[in-house]
Design brief:
There is one protein chain. This protein is mostly beta strands and 476 residues long. The chain folds into two domains: 169 residues; 297 residues, YVTN repeat-like/Quinoprotein amine dehydrogenase (Methylamine Dehydrogenase, Chain H, 7 Propeller), CATH 2.130.10.10. The chain contains four helices and 36 strands. The strands form nine sheets. Strands 1, 2, 3, 4, 5 and 8 form a six-stranded mixed sheet that branches. A four-stranded antiparallel sheet has the order 9-36-35-34, with no helix packed on it. β6 and β7 form a beta hairpin. It is elongated and about 100 Å long.
């Protein structure tokens, strides 16, 4: 009977703790792989001894991790009433309901959305009406009682272990969520430190926040703007951060001192994008009307040009090119040192809010608001379109080794493309109701950072970090 009580504890515990889940690493060798036990309880189950759940669930499944789960294990009970036993207590009628409970177990891979395994476990048959029973009374009035006859817990646990072990041994190319934390405002822009330890976010407020990427802890804030922030970037050496706001002001911050090193002259319109040159010496900013390249140490303007609706500025890995995505002028490639226009493409074909240039400077990936992902070999003048997204593409980024291109979209997916074949090699399915407004590789390429809006009107955002090393560095 204790085993049956344990199952009841499992079923009731989720109700009593509202939305708490049992989340824990399955084993040391599978660090980063997490399991959620979600129980869908039947209406009439009752149990007062909730502590029994600790004994029912394998200890390696329990933990304090708040990481979104990789697998979902859903227990779905079915009540099959078998027999009602009628008695008289204190001269009043009372009934013992003997109920058999069958439980269906469904395991789902939350990354691929595929069912890993499913099995129905039949509960024991009732024993027939006993000669009598112990009934609870309230002020002398007897209370009806139910005995539940549940499946064998040991059989369930053994089967579950087999399913999870087999799944982890055969799947390849999968990604795992490592960390997630919430921000009090929409994340308009973020940047990852070169050492991969920190993330700086900028949203619709005049404050930039620096986070510990591994713990999700907010470490400190950068306060010095009068207007809401719209762009942010770490320098390649990680020693400074640049922030831009909606009224054209740009500040350069010393990370260690958390103080402003330099305030640049206010530019015309919102700072829509910021990027540092690889040598840390120059900073490029885009506004709604101009492109500026400035000395990152002195703030001296090196060159500027009028470009309407600049959405994105990006230096090439050698610092010789500056790629600009616009709303009205297509995509432009400048000589980053002189400001001379080298190439122009896609004029009049849409708005291009995100661009990325491959590490070898051969390809430019261009996203647009229609869901088209374009690959431009600008030296050869060849373009191609990668089909897959069904809504606006919000960001694109090449892995540091150039082997993978990622693209994020409002359709709730992050897609990964092999740059040798331009074939899609993996799709990370997220919630389409939570728009992805930014995604980027870490400096090592083994992780992807994703920013999503998780509340109406942009009042809250989620930043999550995913291990994608199986994609960017596949095992041969």
């Amino acid at each position: 009977m204790k085993r049956r009580i344990l199952w009841i504890g499992m079923l009731i515990f989720s109700l009593s703790l509202f939305d708490m889940r049992f989340i824990g690493a399955q084993s040391d060798e599978n660090a980063g792989v997490y399991i959620t036990v979600e129980i869908s309880p039947a209406d009439d189950l009752e149990s007062d001894d909730l502590q029994e759940i600790i004994d029912a669930v394998p200890h390696e499944w329990l933990g304090d991790s708040q990481v979104t789960s990789r697998y979902e294990i859903r227990l779905i009970p079915s009540l099959l009433a078998r027999e009602d036993c009628h008695y008289t207590v204190n001269r009043l009628p009372v009934t013992l309901h003997q109920t058999r409970v069958d439980i269906e177990v469904v395991i789902t891979d939350l990354v691929s959305q595929e069912r890993v395994g499913a099995r129905a476990f039949a509960g024991d048959e009732p024993f027939g009406c006993p000669a009598g029973g112990v009934f609870r009374t309230i002020n002398g009035v007897p209370v009806n009682k139910t005995d539940y006859f549940l499946p064998d817990t040991d059989v369930f646990v053994d089967w579950l272990r087999e399913q999870m072990s087999a799944s982890l041994n055969v799947v390849t190319g999968l990604v795992f969520q490592l960390q997630t934390f919430e921000v009090d405002d929409e994340v308009q822009s973020f940047s990852v430190s070169p050492d991969g330890q920190y993330i700086v976010t900028a949203g619709e407020e005049p404050i930039a926040r620096v986070w510990d990427k591994h713990s999700g802890e907010a470490l400190f804030q950068l306060e010095g703007h009068d207007d809401d922030l719209s762009a942010v970037a770490f320098s390649p050496d990680g020693r400074v951060i640049a922030t831009g706001d909606t009224y054209g002001s740009t500040n350069i911050w010393d990370v260690d001192a958390q103080a402003i090193l330099l305030s640049l002259d206010k530019q015309f319109g919102e700072i829509t994008s910021i990027d540092f040159s690889p040598d840390n010496q120059r900073i490029a900013t885009g506004t709604l009307a101009e492109v500026h390249v400035l000395d990152a140490v002195t703030g001296e303007e090196l060159w500027t040009t009028i470009v309407i609706e600049v959405f994105c500025v990006k230096f090439s890995s050698d610092g010789n090119l500056l790629v600009v995505g616009t709303g009205t002028s297509g995509v432009m490639v400048f000589d980053a040192h002189t400001g001379a226009v080298l190439f122009e493409g896609f004029q009049g074909e849409g708005s291009f809010k995100s661009v990325a240039i491959s590490p070898n400077s051969q390809f430019i990936a261009v996203s647009d608001t229609e869901g088209d992902l374009r690959i431009w070999d600008f030296a050869r003048g060849v373009t191609s379109i990668l089909a897959g997204h069904t809504d606006e593409i919000t960001s694109v980024d090449f892995s540091p080794n150039g082997g993978i291109l990622l693209s994020s979209s409002l359709d709730g997916t992050i897609r990964f493309w092999d740059t040798n074949t331009w074939e899609e090699v993996y799709t990370l399915l997220l919630d389409p109701e939570l728009p992805v407004n930014n995604a980027a590789f870490s400096a090592t390429g083994g992780e992807v950072i994703i920013a999503q809006v998780i509340a109406p009107f942009g009042v809250e955002a989620r930043v999550s970090i995913w291990d994608v090393s199986n994609i960017t560095n596949p095992v041969e």
